């Protein structure tokens, strides 16, 4: 199951830089995870300063 990014996201981009498969991109209101690309590694979760990324 892919990670998700909640509305607590401040669009800092830290998560996108950590994603090894480039599954994270800027959406209309905050960054979003492409569920088809995400490998559920959790690399993004640890760098999010607001805890907006959930498994």
Topology as a string of helices (H) and strands (E): EHEEE
Q: Could you report the average pLDDT, rounded to the nearest whole number?
A: 96
Task: Assign a percent range to the helix content.
Answer: under 10%
Q: What is the strand arrangement across the widest sheet? A: 1-4
What's the end-to-end separation, in Å? 7 Å
Largest sheet: 2 strands, antiparallel
Shape field: globular
Structural class, by secondary structure, is mainly beta
Structure write-up:
This protein is mainly beta. Helices cover 9% and strands 18% of the residues. It is built from one helix and four strands; from the N terminus they run E-H-E-E-E. It has one helix spanning 14-18, and strands at residues 4-5, 24-26, 31-33, 53-54. The protein starts with a strand and ends with a strand.
What's this entry about, in short?
With 55 residues, the protein is mainly β.
Please supply descriptive tags for the structure shown above:
mainly beta, 18% strand, single chain, two-stranded antiparallel sheet, 9% helix, 1 helix, 55 residues, 4 strands, globular
Layout of strands and helices, then pairs:
Elements: E1 4-5, H1 14-18, E2 24-26, E3 31-33, E4 53-54
């Amino acid at each position: 199951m892919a990670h998700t990014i909640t509305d607590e996201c401040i669009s800092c981009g830290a998560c996108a830089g950590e994603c090894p498969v480039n599954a994270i991109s800027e959406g209309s209101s905050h960054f979003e995870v492409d569920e088809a690309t995400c490998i559920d590694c959790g690399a993004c979760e640890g760098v999010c300063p607001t805890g907006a990324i959930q498994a």
